[in-house]
Amino acid sequence: MFSSAQLQTFALWSGYLTLFCAALAVLGWLLKWGFRFRLVGATGFMGVLTGGLFALSLGLYNRPNIPDAVRFVRIYDTGANYAVISVPPQISESQLTATLKQAAADLYSPGRLSSQGERRMTIRVRTVLHPQPGISQLLYLGQIKRSLADRADEQMEIELFRDQLAQLPKPTA
């Protein structure tokens, strides 16, 4: 399987070949060559091929696996700058931090835009407790704020809500 960088190189060279075919097609039209329609078809095919290679180079990003992160479920996502994930109530503080970092990596997309003009995405994490049968209690355990523009954001702000974490059931040995 080709890497994303290799596919970008293929797309670049395919783009050069597409431009060459387009120039040849224009020359064919100006000189009224008999096979000018075939040149137009070849140029169109090369354009589609170049677009496909470029799209593949964007889509093959391998997301990192953060150690100690637990599985989460995306509950709410605006598609812009706000998302909420859910985790099981049996989570430790270190697992929560790792899960927030994993969610920040997984939910990042260069196509996310902020509707309020913010340049940061906020991901909040919650869990559901059942103190009594038939009663559910939502607990927001923390949040992470990351850049909408930079995939490798080193300035992520992680905030854990320690008062809410204290309400979680203690793991049994």
Description of the structure:
By secondary structure, this protein is of the alpha+beta class. The chain has 2 domains: 4-59; 73-165, no CATH class. 40% of the residues lie in helices and 23% in strands. It has 4 helices and 5 strands, in the order ααββαβββα. The protein has helices at residues 4-30, 36-59, 93-107, 162-165; strands at 73-77, 82-86, 120-132, 135-147, 157-160. Strands 1-2-3-4-5 form a 5-stranded mixed sheet. A hairpin with a 2-residue loop joins strand 3 (120-132) and strand 4. Helix 1 (4-30) runs antiparallel to helix 2 (36-59). The longest helix has 27 residues, at 4-30. The radius of gyration is 25 Å and the shape is elongated. The model has no long low-confidence stretch (mean pLDDT 89).
